[in-house]
Every structure is written in C-alpha cells, then in structure tokens.
Amino acid sequence: MSVTLYPLSTEKSLRQMETENKLCFRVEKGATKAEIKADIEKQLKAKVVSINTVITRGEKHAYVCFAQETPAIDIATNLGLM
Predict the structure, then answer these.
(1) How far is the C-alpha of 55 from the C-alpha of 41, rounded, in Å?
(2) Which residues pair with 6 in a beta bridge?
(3) What is the DSSP letter of 22?
(4) Can you give the pTM of this predicted structure?
(5) Average pLDDT taken over every residue of the chain
(6) Dihedral, 28, 71, 18, 29 alpha carbons, nearest 10
(7) Domain count of the chain?
(8) pLDDT at position 81, please?
(9) C-alpha span between 62 and 33 (Å, rounded)
(10) What are the phi and psi torsion angles at 20 (to 5°)?
(11) Under 8 Å CB-to-CB from 60, ≥6 apart: which residues?
C-alpha cells in the first residue's frame, strides 16, 4: 500500500522546489516519516535527504528534500507538475 497520495503544486511548494530542492506531497494521515521516505524512494527512485510533515485542516503534507544529484524540478517534470 502506498502512503503517498499525490504531489501538491502550490505557490509555496513551487518556491521550495526552486530554492530548497523540495517537493510537497499529500500523504496518509497515519504515515510515519520512515514510511514516507521508503515509499518516495521506491516510487521515484530518488534519494531523500529529509522529510518534514505538517497536518493542516485534517490533511497531512510531507515536504520532501531530495539529494543534490536529483533536482526536484526534474522529478516535478516527470510527475507532470511543471
């Protein structure tokens, strides 16, 4: 079962993609950071450096920072966000 539901394309997430090499994903509310990291690395075949999570209005979002060798812009393009 995948804990990652879908990527988010907001002004904040696009700014973070360019400046901090991060992407934002909507994830299952009960998912842990370790589960999110494993799922993202498996699905996108990209190394994850860190994950920050936040629960807003009953939804859990994960801000995923990728390694320098994997630009977040390339991943967003492959996902159809750009």
Answers:
(1) 22
(2) 26
(3) E
(4) 0.92
(5) 94
(6) 10
(7) 1
(8) 85
(9) 8
(10) -115, 5
(11) 26, 27, 28, 29, 31, 53, 54
